[in-house]
Design a protein that fits this description.
alpha/beta; TIM Barrel; eight-stranded parallel beta barrel; two-stranded antiparallel sheet; 9 helices; 10 strands; about 40% helix; Sugar phosphate isomerase/epimerase
Length: about 270
């Protein structure tokens, strides 16, 4: 398995500093959810046409890969569907240039005012459209276990309506578990679709959850890593530590070394 971190953990780092620290800490790659404040990745400074060649060269010099491009695409709101498709296609194009295997999209919600089956059909349509665009490029479109799309029942219902070979699942450990689904059940039902993982920890309480450093919450991360090892998973273990959204979380100088130490212990 390869080890990465997502840039939500490092919202104030420059691209160059991100590469330097990733190499120094021993990471294999980086997952991108915003760079230097720009969340629409094709518009981020390192990926503009005039900078792209230098960016690719920098990755090679540091021995790093970009494992996934995380978009804001979601398909539960009809009025935002066209924009989501455009961002997805732009991200696939960038992933091809960077030789990145995945882009991440959301479902993301099942609005109460809309029949669940109608929203599921809309999400499946969005995945199909992006998947067909990605076919033959080496890039796959991954639906994250997130929001209301947090259990294998609803994810399977979506994927059964998705007509593309370039679609898979990003397993964010925390979401299904804190919504009551055991990791072994998630894996048993979705293993054939799971291509990438988000490693995340939190403590659940009555009003929501509190994110924690890996190993300090109630998500059985070590157990899940063991499950992946036992079943021959050889993809990425990518830290998702959402300091971008929760500024009071630990600085990356704390969270990234802590994650690497935890992973090395359990691998």
């Amino acid at each position: 398995m390869k080890i990465a971190f997502q840039t939500l953990a490092t919202p104030n780092w420059t691209w160059e500093h991100t590469l330097h620290e990733a190499k120094c800490l021993g990471f294999d790659g980086i997952e991108l959810r915003g760079v230097e404040g720009e969340m629409y990745l094709p518009r981020a400074r390192p990926f503009l046409s005039e900078n792209l060649e230098q960016t690719i060269r920098g990755l090679e010099e540091h021995g790093l890969e970009i494992c996934c491009l995380d978009t804001s695409c979601s398909f539960h709101q009809p009025d935002k569907y066209v924009d989501a498709i455009q961002e997805g296609k732009d991200s696939i194009d960038l992933a091809v240039k960077l030789k990145t295997p995945y882009i991440r999209v959301f479902g993301d919600r099942l609005p109460q005012e809309v029949a669940a089956q109608d929203t599921i059909a809309s999400i499946a349509a969005g995945l199909t459209e992006l998947g067909r665009y990605a076919e033959g490029t080496g890039v796959k479109v991954l639906l994250e276990t997130h929001g209301d799309i947090n259990n294998y029942t609803v994810i399977t219902a979506i994927l059964e309506q998705t007509a593309s070979t370039a679609v898979g699942v990003l397993w964010d450990f925390e979401h299904p578990y804190l919504h009551g689904e055991e990791p072994e059940a998630t894996w048993a039902q979705l293993a054939r679709y799971i291509k990438h993982t988000h490693v995340k920890d939190a403590i659940k309480h009555e009003t929501g959850k509190t994110l924690t450093l890996i190993g300090e919450g109630e998500v059985p991360v070590a157990r899940i890593i063991g499950l992946l090892k036992e079943n021959g998973y050889n993809g990425w273990l990518s830290l998702e530590y959402e300091k971008k959204w929760v500024p009071t979380l630990e600085e990356p100088e704390v969270s990234l070394p802590a994650y690497m130490a935890f992973i090395q212990k359990h691998l």
